[in-house]
Task: structure prediction
Amino acid sequence: MKFWKMNGAGNDFIILNNFEERLPRESFPQIARMLCERRLSIGADGLMVVEAADQGGDFKMLFFNSDGSTGEMCGNGARCICRYGFENGLAREVQAVETTAGMVFGRRIDKRLYRIQLNDPTTIRLDCLLEVDGVRYACSYVELGNPGLPHAVIPYHNLRNADEQELRELGRKIRWNPAFPKGANVNFYELIEEDHFFERTFERGVEDFTYACGTGTGSVAAVLTLQGKVSGHQVRADMTGGTLVVDAERIHSHITELHLTGLTNIVCKGEVTDEELHF
Result:
């Protein structure tokens, strides 16, 4: 199998073109688990498979987390897949990509810079309280698209200097909290200055922190925009792997459009020869 490996702000993905490979769909979870395993294989946060569109898009993006579970959508993955589609002749400079959570629209700004419109928020709850080990945490909850991709948004003081293991354990407990029947991606954030925040995301399906999370960044920006803590225009989000920019269009108490902009990187292209992979 031929593959590309790409990353967006350090969120890394393996991409397979099923127009060419013609792999059975039931094999994708196993392929994701095998190829995303760091040290034993290529290693990545997730697997993306490009297939033929059936709802009017340019192509379809299937997303699988590194544990083999299906993801509804991935923001940084969508930015990367838009570049993949453009450079492989599947779409022009404006792309319509079908995802499990709905249609995602992308735009090529230059060779590496891509902007996508994330799935619209279908659920936003701004004032949730979570209790973990007897401690209460302020929390907001966002779902993007339908079926919704779930995100918990939690302010965290002095996030850059937080104890890594303590934060990981807290992220894990919140990710599995019964308040979230589907589980949740857990986005810790700290406001730095006007229209600028720092974020770390414990991702469902990866079960650890990733270097970035595009849908998580969009969810944080949507919450902060509705709370009046950021303007919603050219909001800068810093993460371990880089910086993304979010634009959130607000009408009264609703976010009507959510755009994510950032660099993409083609890390390598090659052929999978993993002798442990059987399907």
Q: What stands out?
A: The radius of gyration is 18 Å.
